[in-house]
Amino acid sequence: MKDETTVSPTQLSVIMPAYNESHHIYNNLQQVCKALSGLNFELITVDDGSQDSTFEESRRAATGGCPIKSLRLDVNQGKGKALSHGFSNSSGEIIAFLDADLEIGPEHILQLWDVMRSTGAEVIIGTKVNSLNSFPFIRRVLSYMYRRLISFLFGFSLTDTQTGIKLFKREVLEFSIPRLAVSRFAFDIELLVAASRFGYQIAEYPVSVAYNREGQTGRIGLRQMFGMLVDTLGIYYRASFWRWLQPGLVTKLWMIAFAVGLFLLGIGVGKLITPLVLQPPIKQIFRIIALQFLPLRLRDWILLGIGAVLLIVSLIKLNKSILDAFARRDHGDLNGIYRRK
To answer: What percent of the chain has pLDDT over 70?
Structure first.
């Protein structure tokens, strides 16, 4: 006989990080509960060291019968830390991330869940690209530039990684979060990189976004932009072939020797090209290619800059190619370094 007191497992855990959101957190939590009524869910708010009454307001919302669990970090540690803390206190088989300002409506959680069921993907991310017209021009430019950087560094075909609504099967976060190092704005990138590297399928779904922040960039100032860039480059290094290789001193010395040799080779080629006696039209072509129409000192610096850019870009492209080869699923051969155990 079935035990009537048995509590069915939680289907969905919605984690909402919040920082200084006291002016609307109560109403927003009520709105989320209304949108998810009828489901077996829990709503976990994580106050990330707010300086206002965000935590008290979220606890007040919990007294109205909605399954709200209010957590608090004593000091501000970043959105990523708040999400990780919320996940460690969750019990749902499906985990949703949702920003507390509700610029993205909670009804989109159900839409992302439908996509997860229909596609079988373990990760569904909302994309706001179609709603960017409502954003200030500067914010749109910054978003575009960052998307291009992410695509270039990690080879993602995803159109947007920073939208504040995402849906995960629990095992993805159980496997990925312990391996993450970033706790602030680039947390989303590191999490998606980890999920992708370990073979989880990621799908997208367009969501509508209502921009209601003050100013052209909202809460994102120069300090946040710089920190996000540093964190993103740190993620690239930790996820790169060079970090996996962990070369010893001898290998590093050989790498330095290669770079020095390449530099000297470039100088040698430049010196050889300069005195060559060529006939038109080849002479004119080489004059353009070797920048011989410029002053000698300026030409050398330009060639050096071009060489440095080519070197950096080629190394990044090489790194992506190597990772693609090693990150394939296990086929019983050398593939599958990043496969799930």
So the answer is: 81
CA 62 to CA 180: how far, in whole Å?
Answer: 31
Q: Is residue 4 part of a domain?
A: no
Q: Which two tokens stand for residue 283?
A: 């002479």
Q: Where are the beta strands (DSSP E) in 234-285?
A: none
Domain membership flag for residue 142 = yes
Do 213 and 251 fall within a single domain? no
For the stretch 330-339, pLDDT in tens is 444 323 445 4
What SS3 class is residue 70?
A: strand
Closest CA to 14 of 76, 75, 74, 104: 104
Q: What is the pLDDT of residues 67-120, one digit of tens each?
A: 999 999 999 998 899 999 999 999 999 999 999 989 899 999 999 999 999 999
What was the pLDDT predicted at 315?
76
What are the tens digits of pLDDT across the range 230-275?
A: 888 888 888 877 776 667 787 777 777 777 777 766 766 666 666 6
Residue 124 belongs to what domain range?
12-242
Which token pair is 45? 């708010």
Q: Which two tokens stand for residue 79?
A: 């959105």
The whole-model pTM stands at: 0.75
Of the three residues 197, 212, 242, the one that is the final residue of a domain is 242
Choose the final residue of a domain: 242, 266, 298: 242
Alpha carbons 161 and 184: distance in angstroms, whole number:
14
Residue 270 lies in a domain: yes
Q: How many domains does the chain have?
A: 2
Q: What is residue 238's three-state secondary structure?
A: helix
In a domain, 1, yes or no: no
CA 50 to chain centre: 24
Q: What is the dihedral of CA 290, 291, 293, 299, to 10 degrees?
A: -120
